[in-house]
Write a structure and sequence with these properties.
The protein has one helix at about 10-35, and strands at about 50-55, 60-65, 70-75, 80-85, 90-95, 105-110, 115-120, 125-130, 135-140, 145-150, 155-160, 165-170, 180-185, 190-195, 200-205, 210-215, 220-225, 230-235, 240-250, 255-260, 265-270, 275-280, 285-290, 300, 305-310, 315-320, 325-330, 340-345. A hairpin with a 4-residue loop joins strand 6 (about 105-110) and strand 7 (about 115-120). It has a four-stranded antiparallel sheet, with no helix packed on it. A four-stranded antiparallel sheet has the order 4-5-6-7, with no helix packed on it. A four-stranded antiparallel sheet has the order 8-9-10-11, with no helix packed on it. It is mainly beta.
């Protein structure tokens, strides 16, 4: 039996236990943060996973370590993609409507409440989103264009037409000087580049029709895009601005494509099949097919490459994959028909 001496009063003993538990919680939180975002020199809150439910019209804010939904925030009638500001305090949700609608919802991630809606007119059908150089960039499928919104002035301050059908997904370099899009029905990729006087030029690169999901390699040298129509992956050399290889994967219904942070593997989801496909970047060989349900859409990977999250739209959950074992380890209920995913890190 432990004896309580005058120097070990019950009050001091309880205070000591509470202090130990406090520090255990603090150390545990720090460990979880470093697990997902190692190597950062900034103090940040635990990152949040943002997941859209197209069926429930909500944005789920998820604890990615505990795999639990913290809260759900209402959004517009047809949410498809989500992105967070660089400080992690604001989320932006595109309200798509098959190219007919014209809103981007703005969500306060601190209070976890809707703020206001951005009217993108005269640009219709906002879909793909990116946050770069302090601004929100979006594809405007219904207007065959891409646009940019400045959150400081609260105005659309730039747009450019692609002249291509279904300008759908978008990637913007951190300095905001290059914009890449896939044009699904035209079977092309647009490379938009800002000149010295901000005179933008476009290079259109033909790929397979149905090419939608794409990603840029971590070294910025290649763009890979997957075609839902013929199941191929086109590999574009961004310096040469041309297709340098094509992989016949036969992944019909290919929806999204994502590089792992180390640039060694590529993940491809398909709404036409129940697998997540894993490819080796160097050999172009398929490494594994991971059964995730009846179809997959949005893909998000932790920055340290330990886990992937996939919005399984037909199954009404987000699948969690361990990228070391290449196995599904959990499902998260974020609402019906999940799709777009994003990280939010608040500093």
């Amino acid at each position: 039996m432990n004896r309580i001496t005058p120097d070990h009063s019950p009050h001091k003993f309880i205070a000591h236990q509470v202090k130990c538990k406090f520090w255990k919680l603090r150390i545990g939180s720090l460990f979880l943060f470093l697990l997902f975002f190692p190597g950062t020199g900034c103090i940040a809150q635990q990152p949040k996973l943002l997941a859209l439910s197209k069926g429930d019209h909500t944005l789920a804010i998820v604890d990615p370590a505990m795999l639990k939904v913290i809260t759900r925030v209402p959004v517009g009638s047809d949410p498809h993609e989500v992105i967070a500001s660089s400080d992690g305090k604001t989320a932006y949700v595109s309200i798509y409507g098959g190219g007919s609608l014209h809103e981007i919802n703005v969500i306060d991630l601190v209070t976890q409440k809707p703020l206001f809606n951005i009217d993108t007119r005269p640009l219709f059908g906002p879909h793909g989103l990116a946050f770069a150089d302090g601004k929100i960039w979006f594809s405007a499928e219904g207007s065959k264009s891409v646009g940019r919104y400045d959150p400081q002035t609260k105005k659309l301050d730039w747009c450019m037409g692609t002249g291509q059908d279904r300008t759908h997904m978008i990637y913007v370099t951190p300095d905001g000087q290059k914009v890449y899009t896939t044009n699904v029905n035209s079977g092309s990729v647009s490379l938009l580049t800002a000149g010295t006087r901000q005179e933008w030029t476009q290079t259109v690169i033909p790929v397979s029709k149905g090419s939608e999901g794409f990603d840029v390699s971590p070294d910025g040298k290649q763009l890979w895009t997957a075609s839902a129509d013929d199941g191929s992956i086109a590999i574009i050399d961004l310096a040469a601005q041309k297709v340098v290889a094509k992989i016949d994967t036969k992944i019909l219904g290919a929806n999204r494509l994502k590089f792992t942070p180390d640039g060694k593997r590529v993940l491809v989801s398909s709404l036409g099949a129940g697998n997540l496909y894993v490819f080796d970047v160097v050999s172009h060989k398929e490494l594994k097919q991971i059964n995730i349900g009846h179809g997959g859409a949005g893909i998000l990977i932790t920055p340290n490459g330990s886990r992937a999250f996939v919005g399984c739209t037909p199954d009404n959950y987000v699948a969690v994959i361990d990228l070391k074992t290449l196995e599904v380890i959990a499902h998260i209920d974020v609402g019906s028909n999940p799709d777009g995913l994003a990280w939010a890190v608040t500093y």
